Amino acid sequence: MNRAQITGMGIHVPARQIPNSYFNETLGEDVDTWLRENVNITTRYWCAEEESVADLCEAAAKKALTDANVSAAEIDLLIISTDTPEYVSPSTASVVQDRLGLKNAGTFDLNTACAGFVTAMDVAAKYISSDERYRHILVIGGYAMSKYLNKKDKKTVTLFADGAGAVVMSAEQGQSGWLTSDLRTEGQYNGWMGIYAGATNQPISEEVLVNHDHQLKFVHKFPKELNPKMWTEMAQDICKRLGKKPDDFDHFFITQLNFNSINETMDNLGVCREKAHMVMDKYGYTGSACIPMALEDAKASGKLKRGDLLMFIGSGGGLAFAAAAVQY
Q1: C-alpha–C-alpha distance, residues 14 and 45, integer Å
Q2: CATH code 3.40.50.300 for 3-174
C-alpha cells in the first residue's frame, strides 16, 4: 500500500513586520510585557493592503515544489486549508491552481479553522493510500487574519498574524510516512470565537460594519484547560493505536498560540518540553499556517531528520481538533 510521505515544504510571510512596540503606541498601553510573558509573541507579519491569502499560498507552494523537486504538472491535487479565503466563492485553491499552472490538479478548500492544516494532510494521505492515481498532492495552510482584525481590539489584534505553509505529500512504498490520525470536534463552542458576518447567516450590511461583526471576535473566554486536555488525550490515543510511548516521538508540532498550553501538554505526556518546536515568538499566531511553519523552521534549524517520528496536533474555532503521526 502506498503511504503519503512529506517530500517537500515551504513557508512564506509578508514583508511587513509588526513588533509588539507597535501596539504599545497604537493602543496607548504596555501590551509587550503581557505578550512576552503569557503567549511568547514578540513580533508578527501582516499583509500589505494589496496582498491577500492567495499571494501567501502561492509563494509558499513554489518553495515546497522546489524542495520536493516536483514540477507543477506532476501535482494531482491541491488542498488549501484556510478560514481567511480569497473569496467566499470561488475557492482559494482554484486561484492558486491557476497561478501555479497546476494543469493536472483538482482543487478544493477545506475549513476547520486552525485545525485545518492537519485535517488537510489527513485528507491528502487518504487520497494517496486509497487511489493510485494520486502520486503528489500539494497541501497549503494559508492565513491572512490581519484583514479581519479590529485594530482597536487588543484581545485579537495583538495575537493574530499572516503567513502560509505548504507541503508536498507523495506516494511512497514502505512503512514510513503517514501513520494514523484523529479528528474531533467540540461543536458546542462554535459561537465562542469567529468571524460571524459576511456569509448567509449575516450578509454584510451597515449594521454589521458598525458592530464589527465582519471581524474576528472572542465572544466568550475559553476554559484554559481545554486545549491541553484535548491535546493530551489525542496524543495518548495515537500512541496507544501505534503501540508507542509519547517519548518515542522526536518532535511535536502543536498549534502555536500559547506556549504555556504546549508546555502543559508536554508535561502531561511526560515528554521534555524541548521536543515541542515553537515559532510563535517570531511569527505570532498564524492559524492554519502555524504548524507547517513550525515544521519548516525545525528543518531549517537542523532539528528535523529523515526517520524522525512526528506528532502534529492542531486546534481551532468550532472547536475543531486534528492530530496525526508521521514517520518523516
Answers
A1: 6
A2: no
